Amino acid sequence: GFYANLLLTQTPEHILTQANNKTEILCELKKEHTGVYWYRWSQERQHFEFLVFSNTLGKATYGTNVSRDKFRVHEARSHSSYGLHISHLHPSDTGTYYCSVSQSSQLLLGSGTRLSVVDALPLPPKTTQTPVSKRPVPRITKSKAASKKGPCSPLVWIPLAAGVLLLLLGLVPTAHRLYRLRRRLWLRIHRQ
């Protein structure tokens, strides 16, 4: 929790990437340490898996069945920052990754990085320029749109709702002033 955040900072919070790409998670340490542990929590398998430990000399110790080609720890800025490089990404690599340090016989975890690996990124549709045609394009005016969709057209009720909301918000200070005035009068009457 909070104590761990004083010792280590993990970034970013979320990564959404495509299969076969590579990515990096950073862990910055603020105190003396013997090295950094990396873990993965798989929501699907409900399993906390040890990936790799990298000591201050740069020697890495890998977990069982963890590929050295896939996970690599890169050290930077004189033992204060570690990056976990994950390559050849696959949807099965989806999970929450934690950097961790050992402090007085307990492991302190970073805030976690949620990695989502998908086959294709959900990119917004490309906006394409439509060729300008010589024919007149039929335009729908607000009144036509309202009559086409009936009285509940968004063109009618959205501005109406916004107007009512602004009116109500404008009444709040006035109502508060009236309430304070009434209270003052009531106190004056009852003091006499």
Give a short overview.
It is a single-pass type I membrane protein. This protein has three helices and eleven strands. The protein has 192 residues and is of the alpha+beta class.
Write up this protein.
It is found in: Membrane. This is CD8B protein. It is a single-pass type I membrane protein. A hairpin with a 4-residue loop joins strand 4 and strand 5. The strands form two sheets. Strands 2, 4, 5, 6, 9, 10 and 11 form a seven-stranded mixed sheet that branches. By secondary structure, this protein is an alpha+beta fold. The radius of gyration is 30 Å and the shape is flat. It folds into two domains: 111 residues, Sandwich (Immunoglobulin-like), CATH 2.60.40.10; 36 residues. The relative contact order is 0.16.
